[in-house]
Amino acid sequence: MRYFVQKLGFYAVALWAALTLNFFIPRLMPGNPVDIMVSKLAAKGPVTEATRDAIAAMLGTDTEASLWQQYGDYVSAIVHGNLGTSVAYFPASVGQIIDQTLPWTVGLIGLSTVISFLIGVGLGTFAGWKRGSWVDNLIPFTTMLQSVPYFWLALLLLFCFGSIWQVFPLNGGYDVYTFPGVEASWGFTKSVLYHGALPALTIVISSIGGWMLGMRNMMVSTLSEDYILTAEAKGLRPARIRFAYAARNAVLPSISGFAISLGFVVAGSIVTEAVFSYPGIGSALLMAVNSNDYALMQGIFLVITLAVLGANLLVDLLYGFIDPRTRARS
């Protein structure tokens, strides 16, 4: 019980620190979202001082209030679920923007991360078990693909399979002639899968090498342990030794890395979404940074923070069941 209380306390402090940084970092950036909004309105007519004050209050950047008062208002708004109004997508609220973009990112990046993890760990297990096999010889090639600049790989695949052979579409998240509805749901789903195939393939190709190499090295290290030799001396089947003894212990570091990767899934991949013009949360974050949109940046960072901390907490608690030795030291 003490182990779980310590973990919860640690992550509660980490959440508070992340929320504090989430408030101060955007305000250290040059520029002011109020001035951006005023300039947009000024193009349509004169803007009074009262209008400017109303915009500042609406965006939560009231310059008359002290920084600590703004911080208190920020924490109070988060507690009440109010993330503010977006400047880049005005007059939409931050919550609406996140609700619209987050499912696209979770569907694309999340599914791609799970696929690359399962394939990489599976191939890494076999490569570590059968050293010198053809699977083991694939590792230098997959590692090379991981070291290739991500945007270059995305552009290369887009040029080959989207422009030359025209197997996949060049941009977007779905066909503009389809829409999510009761009658067109299957057509819309096929369109989403079709448009997301090439971005997903890019993510899988670029990340599978790391999972494969890490699992392979851990398998080699685990196979040299005494309990593996004992299992072989007892005459256990090779398949049982491979999975129940070797892979089960070798996969623990990969599970930690996988949890961190899942936490960052909600952050999206800005490069992927920019290259493929994908309507995910990474594109919204890029727009927020370019527009000095404090509210949207803080809302997206908050979602990312909660996802990362939640994923790490889940794995820490899961570790206590997978490997009881971690509980014993606490």
From TrEMBL:
Q: Which domain of life is it from?
A: Bacteria
Kindly list the places in or outside the cell where this protein is found, as annotated in its UniProt entry.
Cell membrane; Membrane
What the entry lists under PROSITE patterns is as follows: ABC_TM1
Matching Pfam families: BPD_transp_1
Q: How does the protein associate with the membrane?
A: Multi-pass membrane protein
Organism listed in the record: Pengzhenrongella frigida
Q: What is this protein called?
A: ABC transporter permease
- Keyword entries, A-Z: Membrane, Transmembrane, Transmembrane helix, Transport
Q: Which PANTHER family match?
A: OLIGOPEPTIDE TRANSPORT SYSTEM PERMEASE PROTEIN (PTHR43376:SF1)
Sequence similarity = Belongs to the binding-protein-dependent transport system permease family.
Keyword Transcription listed? The answer is: no
Q: Which residues are listed as membrane-spanning? A: 7-25, 108-129, 150-168, 192-213, 250-276, 296-322
Q: What is its main location?
A: membrane
**Per the record, GO CC terms?**
plasma membrane
Residues in ABC transmembrane type-1 domain copies: 102-315
Q: What is one GO biological process annotated to this record?
A: transmembrane transport
Q: Is this entry keyworded Transmembrane?
A: yes
